[in-house]
């Protein structure tokens, strides 16, 4: 089964449930920044997300400096934001 990009209405509806995530039109995905007490907390968060992402075979683009983690979710196979990104973002919210 192929993964398809969400249309504008689907994207708007999905992001209503993820108010801390923003749509990045250039990247055709969603972004969020996280801040933690220190590097160890940021790294622990990334480790939990990495395990989940590997099991789902859906990997984030991310950047980490000390206590900050920035995540971009997009589905390259779909050419943009898909239900897979929304599902992963929802789970990530539970870790934050």
Describe, in plain words, how this protein is organized in 3D:
This protein has a 4-stranded antiparallel beta sheet with strand order 1-2-4-3, covered by helices on one side. It has 96 residues and is an alpha+beta fold. Helices cover 42% and strands 22% of the residues.
Write out key terms for the chains shown:
single chain, 96 residues, alpha+beta, four-stranded antiparallel beta sheet, 3 helices, 4 strands, globular
Q: How much of the polypeptide forms β-strand, as a percent range?
A: 15-25%
* Secondary structural class: alpha+beta
The average pLDDT is: 94
Number of strand segments: 4
Name the helicity range. Answer: 40-55%
Spans of at least 5 consecutive residues with low confidence: none
Helix and strand run:
HEEHEEH
Biggest sheet statistics: 4 strands, antiparallel
If you compute it from the alpha carbons, what radius of gyration comes out, rounded to the nearest whole angstrom? 13 Å
Number of helices: 3
- Side by side, the strands of the main sheet go 1-2-4-3
Compute the separation of the termini in Å. 31 Å
* Shape field: globular
